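User: Please predict structures.

Assistant: First:
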Amino acid sequence: MKTFELEGSARTELGQKASAALRKQDLIPCVLYGCKKENTNFTVSKSAVRKLIYSPEVFEVKLTIGKKNCSAVIKEIQFHPVTDNILHIDFLEVDDKKPIVFKVPVKTEGLAAGVKAGGKLSLEMRRMKVKGICKNIPECVVVNVEKLEVGKSIKAGDLSFPNIEIVDNKESLVVCVKSTRAAKAAAEGEAAQS
């Protein structure tokens, strides 16, 4: 997992009125939920988190709030329903002993046999929930699709990765090869020749 450096400023005034005033200054109210300690309220600038939020990659965030330094991951982001502006970010402090549940991107590798036969590869799950220690969580999970035939699929229960556990439902569809007109025509042509 890649790391991202982020500096924040501690805040003492809480509540909707204080948060609205911060947003007018282009600051985002945030909360760091600690492993053992109390929660820390702080703010970050919109420009500081732009590359962290609007990226398909996942990051371990190295947070600096005043004199406090810690590692964290983004737990939740709240967006405004109309303007899509970031309203609030929740961070979760991580350590090397306690596992976390995290969503990571899913990528495919290889050319599916079903695609060679005229089918269409469909990635049904863009992000997968995995559980593990932060340093073991990969930037993405890679699924090999070379042996996937037309009409066949790979489910979450079919996959396993070292040092992490898949938390998604075992029956959840990850990737499949859908039949197309070209694939049906090729299959009918083979049947007619035999």
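Second:
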Amino acid sequence: MKERIVKVADCAVESGEAVIITLGLGSCVACVLYDPVAQAGGLAHILLPSHTLARDRANRAKFPETAVPLLIEQLTKLGAARERLRARLVGGASMFANLIAPGVAMMGERNVMATREALKVARIPLIAEDTGAGYGRSVYLYLPTGRLEVRSVLHGIREL
């Protein structure tokens, strides 16, 4: 099976006999889109909740408001149908919660909220998520079936 590794502020789309992997999500969010009929899926490793927080805005995979449309665009080129796409979110952890003043929205939480909003704007249903808490995660998307594994040192392997 072909493996595609997605690094921070990057994305990948595949179909057929492949697995898309991103490792070590902390406050970043993995936005996963999948079309079960086309067996096509994509994953964006989103770094920041808004392009307004970065000087370099050229990388569309870095921000939810540009990463979600980018995934949709690339998946439709692989034969996915927009109306069949379903989303799952992973990550958005509060890795250093004890260092932040109470009541301050942390980067992980902001990433999750912004990605949910981008999916809402794109009219892509969010069917599952494993977000928040204070631990890192890795994600494995198996394209033939759409199975999504969330792995963490503290919590083992969970199917989402």
